[in-house]
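Please, structure for the following, as tokens.
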Amino acid sequence: SGLLILPDDSVVGQSLREALDLDDAVLTLKLTPNKADCLSVFGIAREVAAITRAPLKSPHYPAVPPVHADRLPVAIEAADLCGRFSGRIIRKVDGRAPTPQWMKSRLERAGQRPISALVDISNYVMLELGRPSHIFDLDKIAGGLQVRWARSGEQLKLLNGNTITLDADVGVIADAQQVESLAGIMGGDATAVSDDTSNIYVEAAFWWPDAVRGRARRYNFSTDAAHRFERGVDAATTVEHLEYLTRLILDICGGEAGPVDDQITRLPARPPVRMRVNRCRQIIGADIAAEEMADIFKRLQLPFERIDDAFVVSPPSFRFDLEIEEDLIEEVARIWGYERLPLRPPQAAAVMRSVPEATRPAHALRRQLSTLGYSEAVNFSFVDAQWERDFCGNGEPIALLNPIASNLAVMRSSLLGSLVDNVVRNVRHRQPRVRMFEIGRVFHRAPNQPDGPLAVQGVAQPMHVAAIAYGPVWPEQWG
């Protein structure tokens, strides 16, 4: 709120949008977590150049010659936290120098609030190149810096005003007296730059993604730096980006730069990834020429070798998402163009075959018999021994040890006896026409039948179907 002071050359009657150069387009990009290489203007330009074949102007930042030999002692005590730490001292800067309007305008259009020239320069380089950095007030640092894991119980007041209690699973940058920064996430208030700052230490580091991932959310906040470092930031360009930071600081705030101190403990390994040409075609579903695949890798700046019928790609330092063959196939597919995939459904040879009778479900048989006018009967598996002899000729049926009735003393070897009894009962009730069927198990002696969870040794239990009809073929018709 307040008055907006317009430039002296503003024309009365001119549109405010034109006067403030507000006629611009906003592009909102939603990146998947694996595309950390696109979290910058240069990263997007590199991607667009690969897709459109437009020439890419890669920036080059010449080294700034040191004016003095001052160095800040830095000790990397945790190689699993920091793989590379680059920094330099710059003296006699003007902390009150204003941020140039062109930089303020670009920051505002990218959603960043201008704060001060030194802070704005750090944010600007992060947005342009994807490299988060931090600027310390050198005069507020006690001794040198230690890059280490925090000690349980240590406290840190952050730039956002929050004071947090640390544990041993969080990386920090500390001096001889206290913790000064949450590694890869946010700086501390104690060494923050201000209008009175005249000597600074500029840091650009590579923090291992696993060492940063989830730490900011643990304290209920998120930062642009953490968002990038937990996905992976190029470890090969810390010095180059530090030179760019230095040049901007000298041009805007003045000062005298010292030598670059570059310490490397361990850098990410980039093992080659092999992609088979035929496998790529099979997965994508299109007959893409091997020469076109090679062209795609060149456009994406992916060094490769052609070995037999495969490409062996060496992932560059800015690509953390290329680890397996499918990753390379995805790169080929998206640059070649998903819209070029043939719009046809997959085809498979289909041969109509009848289902073997032994595997047909009993329900289908029940439904068919019901359609023919038969009613299903569900009878006991126990029958009269006389029935077994009369209907089945079974002189030695399987007898029950403890029958529930004298006429249900043996196991049936056929379904016919029970169905005949059903017909007799229906006829006695003056039913002139009877159609009945039953699906159930019968029981035979089988010496070779083994014992099991659903079997009894010496007894076979096959499933049978039987039907019986009595009376006229067609039911009586009226009329």
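The domain at 358-470 is CATH 3.30.930.10 (BirA Bifunctional Protein; domain 2). The longest helix spans residues 238-253.
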